[in-house]
Every structure is written in structure tokens, then in C-alpha cells.
Amino acid sequence: MATPIQASVRYYRRGITRVLWVPTIAAPTAPTRAELDAGTALEGETGAMGGWQTTSETVATPALGSRFTPVVGGAITAADSSLTFWASRDGDDVRALLVREASGFIVWMDEGDVPTQTMDVYPVTVTSQAKVRELDSAAQIMCQFAITSEPRENVAIPAAAGGGA
How many CA atoms lie within 13 A of 152 on its CB side? Predict the structure, then answer.
């Protein structure tokens, strides 16, 4: 009998997931705790998100000797991505932080900021700050991002200085 897949410990994302804006990361495959701590935690003002996934295309590799057409992995792309924040009536909100054309990194810690768990590191440029205008909704600002190079997925979260979380 085949060994069953490891049972997951399921969780509800709100209150656990961390999302950071980090201006500088020298090695996206291994961000340091100092680099992460220099970032800004966004989850407290994030009202919605979209995208933040990578997908792989496939390329057909037909051969005259067979009617079957096998495929191989092709280009890797990232979905159009955005974060939507709550707007402040006094204008003191995300607009001062995520200005158009700012470059940096969005870091997703889906299971929280827990050393040895994993995070995804997206190199990005802010492409817009759109004011979301709806009649019966609280005011929001949607920041859209261009993902500028291949995201680093499942990167180990480093320990805090002194070994704590």
C-alpha cells in the first residue's frame, strides 16, 4: 500500500499571515533577519490582495514518429498582483510608502513569521496607487505591482537576533 501524504494542519489566514514591504534584500534566496526587520509590515492595513502566484506554461514537443504530443515545462510567469489598503481620511496612509515606481520586495510569510517556516520573496516595482471609489464601501487604495524577476518561493525564514522568533 502506498504511503499517504502527510496530513495538513489547516489554518485560517487572517491573523497569521504576514506580508512585508522590504526596500532592500541583497540575496532574495536568503534574506537576513536584519533586512526583514528593516521592512514594513503591511498586513494590519491590507484589506484585499490579488495575484501573487507563479504559473508555468508548457511547450509541445511533437515528433513525427508518434501521434502523441508530449509537453515539457516552459516559461514561468507571475500573475498580475495587487494589495488593497484602507485609505486614511487625513491622507497619511500607504500612499506615502508605496509610491509609483518604487522598487523593493513583497515578502509573504503565509504561516506567520516563524523561523524555519517558509516565505516567498517577490521582487517588485509599484506600478500604480489607484483610489478605489465605491458608493457603499470604506475608502481604499489599491497598489499594483510588476513582478520584475522570478520570485523565490519556499525560502526559510531566518531566526531573530539571539535565536528567538
Answer: 17
Give the mean model confidence (pLDDT) for residues 126-131. Answer: 96
Q: Return the SS3 of 45.
A: helix
- DSSP per residue over 10-68, as a string? ---STTT-EEEEES--S-TTS--HHHHHTSEE-GGGEEEEE---EEEEEEE---TT-S-
93 closest CA partner among 51, 37, 143, 18: 143
Cβ neighbours for 80, distance < 8 A, ≥ 6 positions apart:
50, 51, 144
- Residue 147, pLDDT > 80, answer yes
- 13 in helix, strand or coil? coil
For 11-22, what is each residue's pLDDT tens digit?
Answer: 999 999 999 999
Q: Are 130 and 98 in contact (CB under 8 A)?
A: no
Angular region, 15: left φ>0, alpha ψ -120 to 50, beta rest: left
Domain residue extents for the chain: 18-50+79-160
Of 45, 132, 29, 119, nearest to 86 (Cα)?
A: 45
